[in-house]
Design a protein that fits this description.
Strand order of the largest sheet: 1-2-3-4-5
Number of domains: 1
Largest sheet: 5 strands, antiparallel
Number of strands: 9
Structural class: alpha+beta
Order of helices and strands: HHEEEEHEEEHEE
Strand content: 25-35%
Shape: elongated
Length: 234
C-alpha cells in the first residue's frame, strides 16, 4: 500500500511542469534598461558638477589675478609723479589697451628717482613693464619714447590672461571732468607751460590729474571689471 502511494506521488510530480528559479529574458532586459537609465542620470549629474567646478575655479583665478593687478596699479597711481615735477611733460598717457605713466621710486638712504611704467594688453594678456629708475630727465624722455614706441626690451610681467579690452578715462579737476583716451591724448600732446595752458585752467597752472577709471573686460564675462584710482595719493 505504501509503495503504491509513493509511486503515484512520483508520477504526479513527473507530470507537472518544472519550475525555473532564474530570471527570464524579458526581466533581464528590463533590469538592464533601468540600470542604463540610472547610469545616464548619474553621469549627467557628475558631468554638471565637474563643469561647474571648472567654471568656478576659473572665475576664482580671474578674480584673484585682477585683485593683484588692481593692487599693483593702485600703488603705481599713488606714486604718480606730479606735473610740476616734470619739465613740459604729462606724467600719464592713456589709449586703447595701453597705460603709460611716470612714477616716483623711493628707496632707503637714496634720493627719489623716476620710472616709466607701462600696462598693455596684447594677444589677450595684460602685462606690466617698468623701466630703470633715473634722475636724468633726458634719460627719462628716452625711456618714455621706448615705452610708447614698443621698442622697450625689458622683461614684461604677465598680470592677467583672457583680457579682451582695457579702457580708461581720466578725471581732470577744474571743469574738464572725465576725459577719454582720445581727448586726453590731445591734451597730453600739448606741452604744459605758463605760455600755453589748457583752456579750462587758470593761466599759468597745469591741469590737475586726480582720478583714473580703469575698465577691464575679461573673456567669458558680460560685464567689465571697473575700478577708480586716486592719482598721487601719497
Amino acid at each position: 500500500m505504501h509503495n503504491r502511494l509513493h509511486a503515484k506521488c512520483i508520477a504526479l510530480e513527473a507530470s507537472q511542469p518544472a519550475r525555473h528559479t532564474g530570471l527570464t529574458l524579458i526581466e533581464l532586459l528590463v533590469a538592464i534598461s533601468i540600470l542604463s537609465f540610472i547610469a545616464v542620470l548619474g553621469w549627467r549629474g557628475l558631468d554638471s558638477i565637474v563643469r561647474a567646478r571648472i567654471a568656478l575655479t576659473s572665475n576664482l583665478e580671474q578674480t584673484r589675478g585682477m585683485q593683484l593687478t588692481f593692487a599693483q596699479l593702485q600703488s603705481d597711481c599713488a606714486h604718480l609723479t606730479s606735473i610740476t615735477g616734470l619739465p613740459n611733460r604729462m606724467p600719464l598717457a592713456i589709449e586703447q589697451g595701453r597705460l603709460t605713466l611716470v612714477r616716483t621710486v623711493y628707496a632707503d638712504n637714496q634720493p627719489s628717482r623716476l620710472q616709466v611704467v607701462t600696462y598693455r594688453v596684447k594677444d589677450g594678456v595684460l602685462t606690466r613693464r617698468e623701466s630703470v629708475a633715473t634722475r636724468d630727465f633726458k634719460e627719462l624722455g628716452m625711456l618714455w619714447r621706448t615705452a610708447t614706441d614698443d621698442t622697450d626690451t625689458s622683461q614684461a610681467v604677465a598680470l592677467q590672461s583672457g583680457v579682451t579690452a582695457l579702457t580708461m578715462r581720466l578725471w581732470i579737476s577744474g571743469g574738464s571732468g572725465w576725459q577719454t583716451g582720445t581727448e586726453f591724448s590731445q591734451l597730453s600732446a600739448t606741452p604744459v607751460s605758463t605760455a600755453n595752458p589748457p583752456p579750462d585752467q587758470t593761466s599759468g597752472s597745469p591741469p590737475l590729474l586726480t582720478g583714473l577709471e580703469v575698465a577691464v573686460q575679461l573673456l567669458g564675462r558680460e560685464d567689465s571689471l571697473l575700478k577708480i584710482f586716486l592719482l598721487g595719493a601719497v
